[in-house]
Specification:
- The protein is an alpha/beta fold.
- The chain is globular, with a radius of gyration of 22 Å.
- It has 13 helices and 12 strands.
- Strands 8-7-6-9-10-11-12 form a 7-stranded parallel β-sheet, with helices on both faces. Strands 2-1-3-4-5 form a 5-stranded parallel β-sheet, sandwiched between helices.
- Bound molecules: glyoxylic acid (GLV).
Length: about 375
């Protein structure tokens, strides 16, 4: 059933999906969409917020800080972010102004973990150099090991740094690849989950699906780095002062040196978790074998990034912040399947006063602490 809500005015900084946005229009919302490829300038966002909109739909490209919340004082009732990560939104300022903000956890978990695994495979098995060889007509002859070999994924040791939703989803996939799994998380340890994964590993071994018994365990960060063949990052970006254990430049010159020279780094979390200068230098110096990256310190990746160095091209896979970009994951209007659907539902919950009008009870609100 559609309900008329002519009173709600919403500005979307991006077209997050026509069908999902149409749900708002059908409910009588007055919706303005900044329908460009690039993010709107901050001055425009401020102007819209100052004009008294009730809801703001954002993406990870929009800095939502004290200035925005101040501009929306007394009028802005929700910021609905079309992403799981929210390091672009100042939680402290949202709380100060008591404005709930929402995100799209869960619906992109499998797509992102799947992409992390595929990126990992792509760098280790040299998919890009292989295809380039064929396309450039440089494939001279079949040979047992020339012009290059890749590294198998099956049976290797996978370190999962961050064992929240996406880290756990990757672990489940790693079980199918007979990986030994080392878990590290600075704040949250899913011991029950890890115990169950070990049970599944044991069952696979007993039934002969895994020739060797595989193991999963929590270890400290150093041990994870020292022993892994693949290190996959699944932590939120937390800068100095934002958490007791910041994740900014968690991977740096020093920590890269702990990794094996045959190991690969995979990043689908946030770019600044990795010091890119140090990473490019480490790959060039053969301190680690390579990396596959979907996120960068600056996005889009600058033309002069050291990660583009042709000397390391075959060992560095670069993607355009693409991990969650599956059709259903990005666009489904079902809040249990798609980011667009979840963003819109989160906005509706907040503006229409679902869950007794209490943001602390609304499932997609991040800063529940401000409303308890
Ligand atoms: C993508 O990076 C997201 O946070 O949703």
């Amino acid at each position: 059933m559609t309900r008329a809500n002519p009173r709600f005015r919403v500005f979307a900084t991006c077209n997050i999906g026509d069908e999902a946005l149409e749900l708002l229009r059908r409910r009588g919302y007055e919706l303005e969409v900044y329908d460009q490829l690039e993010a709107p300038p901050k001055s425009l966002v401020l102007e819209k917020v100052r004009s008294g909109i009730d809801g703001l739909i954002t993406t990870l490209r929009d800095p939502i800080d004290a200035e925005v919340f101040e501009a929306g004082k007394g009028t802005l009732r929700v910021v609905a972010q079309d992403a799981v990560g929210f390091d672009n939104i100042s939680r402290a300022d949202a709380n100060r102004y008591k404005i709930p903000f929402t995100h799209t956890a869960d619906v992109l978990t499998e797509a992102t973990a799947e992409f992390a695994l595929l990126m990992l495979a792509s760098v280790a098995r040299k998919l890009y150099p292989s295809e380039r060889l064929v396309r450039e007509n440089r494939w001279g002859a079949w040979h047992p090991f020339l012009p290059f070999l890749g590294d198998e994924v099956t049976g290797k040791t996978l370190a999962v740094i961050g064992t929240g939703r996406i880290g756990q989803a990757l672990i489940k996939k790693g079980v199918g690849f007979d990986n030994d799994i080392l878990c590290y998380d600075p704040t949250f340890q899913a011991h029950d989950f890890v115990r169950k994964i070990q049970e599944i590993m044991d069952l696979r071994h007993r039934h002969g699906f895994s020739p060797e018994r595989r193991t999963i365990r929590y270890v400290d960060f150093e041990e994870a780095l020292r022993h892994a063949d693949f290190v996959s990052l699944h932590v939120p970006l937390l800068r100095e002062g934002e958490a007791a254990r910041p994740t900014y430049h968690l991977i740096n010159e020093k920590t890269l040196r702990l990794m094996k020279p045959t190991a690969y780094l995979i990043n689908t979390s946030r770019g600044p978790v990795v010091d890119e200068q140090a990473l490019a230098a480490a790959i060039k110096a053969n301190i680690i074998a390579g990396a596959a990256l979907d996120v960068f310190e600056e996005e889009p990746l600058p033309a002069d990034s050291p990660l583009r160095d042709p000397a390391i091209e075959d060992r560095v896979r670069l993607f355009h912040h693409f991990a969650s970009a599956g059709r259903i994951t990005r666009l489904s209007t079902d809040p249990n399947k798609g980011m667009a659907g979840r963003t819109v539902q989160a906005l509706i919950d907040a503006l229409e006063g679902n869950y007794g009008g209490n943001p602390a009870e609304m499932p997609y609100v991040v800063n529940k602490e401000a409303f308890r």
